Amino acid sequence: MIEGRANELPDFQVFRTVIKYCMVIIIVPVLSFFVAKSILFDGVLRLDPINSSVYSAVVAVVVLHVALGLYIFKAYSETEKDPKPVKKD
């Protein structure tokens, strides 16, 4: 029974990591779009609504690619921590 629980723990950690990155991939680009549009492009630069929406979409796409790149980097850089089998003499 204990061995079964030990095998479930890494699966749960992987699931939790995937859920975290999914939330980042969904929420952060949307927030960056609206923040860039309302504060930077409409507020500071005072662009017309169409241009500010286009530039904000570009910002959101760049942020999305950065988040996806971080997820891919994490997926490839994870090392397996398999315990080495103990030899019995």
Automatic annotation (TrEMBL):
Membrane topology per record: Multi-pass membrane protein
Function: Required for the assembly of the V0 complex of the vacuolar ATPase (V-ATPase) in the endoplasmic reticulum.
Cell compartments where the protein resides: Endoplasmic reticulum membrane; Endoplasmic reticulum-Golgi intermediate compartment membrane; Cytoplasmic vesicle, COPII-coated vesicle membrane
Membrane-spanning intervals of the chain: 21-41, 53-73
Superkingdom: Eukaryota
GO biological process: vacuolar proton-transporting V-type ATPase complex assembly
Source organism: Bombyx mandarina
Record keywords, A-Z: Cytoplasmic vesicle, Endoplasmic reticulum, Membrane, Transmembrane, Transmembrane helix
Family: Belongs to the VMA21 family.
UniProt name for this protein: Vacuolar ATPase assembly integral membrane protein VMA21 homolog
Record InterPro entries: Vma21
Transmembrane helix found in the keyword field: yes
Main location: endoplasmic reticulum
Entry's Gene Ontology cellular component terms: endoplasmic reticulum membrane; endoplasmic reticulum-Golgi intermediate compartment membrane; ER to Golgi transport vesicle membrane
